[in-house]
Structure formats: C-alpha cells, structure tokens
Amino acid sequence: MKKLVITGGAGFIGSHVVRRFVNQYPEYTILNLDALTYAGNLENLKDIEDKPNYQFIKADITDEKQIIEIFSEFQPDGVIHLAAESHVDRSITTPLEFVKSNVIGTVILLDAVKKIWNKNYEGKRFHHVSTDEVYGALNETGFFTEETKYNPHSPYSASKASSDHFVRAYADTYNLPVVITNCSNNYGPNHFPEKFIPLLIHNILNNKTLPVYGDGNYTRDWLYVIDHAIAIDLVFHKGKNKDNYNIGGFNEWKNIDLVHLVCKLMDKKLGRSEGESAKLITFVKDRPGHDLRYAIDASKINKELGWKPSVNFEEGLTRTIDWYMDNQDWLNHVTSGSYRKYYDEQYDLI
Ligand code: NAD
Ligand code: DAU
What we know:
- 43% of the residues lie in helices and 17% in strands.
- By secondary structure, the chain is of the alpha/beta class.
- The protein has a domain at 3-187 and 222-247: Rossmann fold, CATH 3.40.50.720.
- The strands form three sheets. It has a seven-stranded parallel β-sheet with strand order 3-2-1-4-5-6-10, sandwiched between helices.
- Bound molecules: nicotinamide-adenine-dinucleotide (NAD) and 2'deoxy-thymidine-5'-diphospho-alpha-D-glucose.
- 2'deoxy-thymidine-5'-diphospho-alpha-D-glucose (DAU) binds at residues 86-88, 131-133, 184-185, 195-196, 199, 211-213, 218, 220, 255, 287, 294.
C-alpha cells in the first residue's frame, strides 16, 4: 500500500495526474495537496472526488509548519510535485510570487520528506515536475536534450530552474531519492484560459479578438496533457534514481499557424464559414524576453521507458475543442471566478 502526495492536483496538469493515479492504482492512497490559488479548481476532479483512495487537503507549500504537520501525519512514500505558479506573463508582473511558490515551496517540500524519511529511502521517491523552459530558447534548429545547459530567461523559468537545482542539490547532499521531468507545452481539457490554446478557444466561442504576441513566429512543442500524465506515471515508477527525463510532443507549431488551425477547426464545429474566426486575429505587443523556440528531444524516455505520445495533434486539439464546447459551464465559472464557490461548498464536506 503506497501513500502519495500530489501537489498542485487541482490545477491543469495536476488534475490529470491525480485522476490517472486514483484510477490506475486503487491500492494507493492519493493525497491531493493544493492551495487553490486562482489556478486551482476542484471542479476539475468532480468525477473522482468520492473515490475511497482519494483525499484532498487545502495547504500552501510555502507554509513550512503546515507542510511538516501534514507530512508527519500522512507519512507519504512518494511525492509528485506539480504545485507552482505557472504562467510566464504573470511572472513578469509578480516575480516574487514565483520565487515563493516555485523555489521556497519546493525547498520546504524537500525538507519535509528529508525529515520524515529520515534516511530510510527504500521505496521512497520525490518526483519534481519541471519544464523545458529551464533550457532557455532555441533558434530555428536543434533540440533540448537532458544535457542542455540551463539558461532561463523569464522569472517563471528562472524560478523553475532554481527549483530543479535544489532538487539535485538535495539528491547530491542528502542522498534524497529524486527524479525530475522537463516537459514541453501541454494542452487539453481543464487548461486555464489565460494560456494560449484555451484562450483562443474561449475567445473564438465569444467572438473576441485573438491576441498574437509580436509577429507570431514563436514556436512551441505541444503535448496532449494525458500523455504527460502517462509519462509522469512511468518515470515515477520506473525512472532511474537521481535522473532527469525530457518529455515532448515531437509537435512544433509556430503560434500563427496554430491560431489558423484552431480557427479552421472551430469554424467547422461552429458552422461558421471558413476564415470567419481568423478575422479575429490581432497582433499585439510582444512578451518581454519572449523565447523564440522550444523543441524537446524526448528520445531518452522513449528508449529507456518506451514512452511516446499516443495522441496526434489534430485529434488532441479536436478533443480539446469538443471538451470546451461541452463544458462551457466550467469555462464560465473560471472566467467569472465563480468556481471558487464550488470549493466553499465542497470544503465543508471534507
Ligand atoms: P496550473 O497553474 O494550472 O496549476 C498549478 C496548481 O498549483 C494550482 O492548482 C494551484 O492552486 C497550485 N499551487 C500554486 N501555488 C501553490 C502553493 N504555494 N501551494 C500549494 N499549491 C499551489 O499549472 P499547470 O499548468 O498544471 O502546471 C503544473 C506543473 O507543471 C507546474 O510545476 C509547471 O511548472 C509544470 N509544467 C507545466 C507545463 C504546461 O504546459 N502547463 C509544461 C511543463 C511543466
Ligand atoms: O514550455 C512549457 C511551458 O509552457 C510551461 O512551463 C508553462 O507553465 C506554460 O504556461 C507554457 O508556457 P508558454 O509561455 O509557452 O505558454 P503560453 O500559453 O503562455 O504561450 C504559448 C505561446 O503563445 C507563447 O509563444 C506566447 C504566445 N501567446 C500567449 C498568449 C497567452 C500569444 O501569442 N498570445 C497570448 O495571448
């Protein structure tokens, strides 16, 4: 019987990871630990919230005392750490928030497991979920490998790079059993509509402009979120101790081409004539320090653990658009902020 803490489980990727572990491993107890910031939404987990192997606790990873108390009581064998401030644009306005949650919060968690595991590391693992943005930006060619030198540019990526360094430092200094994954851009259901793809879907549905930063020639490698959750499951269980794995979609898109693809798919879904949604495209001021291109070489996880993306982009994007069209309540709750009421009602029951 394993006990796992998953931090940030009410967020976009975290909720898919929690769902996968709760459904896949009924013999585990999964504790979802999340502060429920603006990005945390328990509505994401309605379908599994009553499962006997699932628990939720509202807690902030920057609250050292509370984290030690929770960990001492729950005694997890494993931690999958996703809780973070995740939006690059917000990090440009409030960098300190990112240092607090992403750096200090990670160190508090590392300290908590170091304390409760007390050098008994048999069957224990701390899995740190990180990003490809720690590697910086690529030009037109080349890929990030696990050996690429860290070179973050935004306060967000600098905070994630720093957290990765702390995880490695705890492995080297205290022999803590850790593993790190660095993934490319995710997309899929439950993605908060401040991020590019859900923002496009939301704005097309509401006939609002589609803001494209700069000239739109920035390139991202997109991966369907459920494939990321599967990769995390594999690395958590089978990845080498103290190692890191890149995860990516082998799926690069220039932003401007991506907008046109989303417009085309949504014109069809909405019965609009082709080209109608694309009229909403508006070029806006660029993001400061905008990384030109991310591209992941995910051959290591493929060779060692047999992982590769299972969902191709057009299929994943179609599923995503369908999900947003079928879940407009979710979208309305998130954009109006009323999803927080769900938490207030739900929390009393827990
Ligand atoms: P998200 O913003 O959707 O969710 C973050 C979750 O963490 C929320 O539920 C929030 O309430 C919680 N949280 C934030 N600060 C907290 C704190 N101090 N204490 C406890 N909980 C806190 O983020 P996401 O997109 O799901 O990303 C999850 C993780 O994956 C992050 O670590 C991110 O860096 C990493 N990542 C994201 C992507 C991506 O494309 N979204 C790609 C690679 C890696
Ligand atoms: O690469 C992994 C990272 O991907 C994760 O670590 C981050 O948590 C996640 O937010 C994401 O970062 P990006 O900055 O790449 O994602 P975002 O959706 O914010 O932007 C994707 C691209 O689209 C980027 O080049 C900026 C551009 N963009 C974004 C928004 C919100 C626009 O052109 N217009 C927009 O309105």
